[in-house]
Amino acid sequence: MFPPGTMRGFTVKYAYILLANVDGNFHAVTAVCPHMRGYLPIGMLEGNIIKCPVHGSQYDVTTGKLVKDVPGVLRVLTGGGSHDLMSYPVSVEDETVYVEI
């Protein structure tokens, strides 16, 4: 396992998953930004918010919800904005974290 305030990226059944430990609780969301395909595990995690390393959109890793979209000019130049990430159920048993895909 890994400590609170950290995250890791995994490939599970051909899905890219970001697993984040927020205050001792594990949460799993899609690890690739739906807007410009930024790999979120190399972004910045602050509390429960992950910031895309490519364009700065921000997502809540506890829900997958988009909390801050890309700036308007960037949205026009790249053909649209971001949308929510897919969220996955997580359980922990005997120090093992399970993500339901």
Structural account:
The protein is mainly β and 101 residues long. It has a single domain (6-99), classed as 3-layer Sandwich (Rieske Iron-sulfur Protein). 7% of the residues lie in helices and 43% in strands. The protein contains 1 helix and 10 strands, in the order E-E-E-E-E-E-E-H-E-E-E. It has one helix at 72-78, and strands at residues 6-12, 15-22, 25-30, 44-46, 49-51, 58-60, 66-68, 87-88, 90-93, 96-99. The strands form 3 sheets. It has a 4-stranded antiparallel β-sheet with strand order 1-2-3-8, with no helix packed on it. Strand 4 and strand 5 (49-51) form a beta hairpin. The longest helix is centred in the C-terminal third of the chain and has 7 residues, at 72-78. The radius of gyration is 13 Å and the shape is globular. The model has no long low-confidence stretch (mean pLDDT 88).
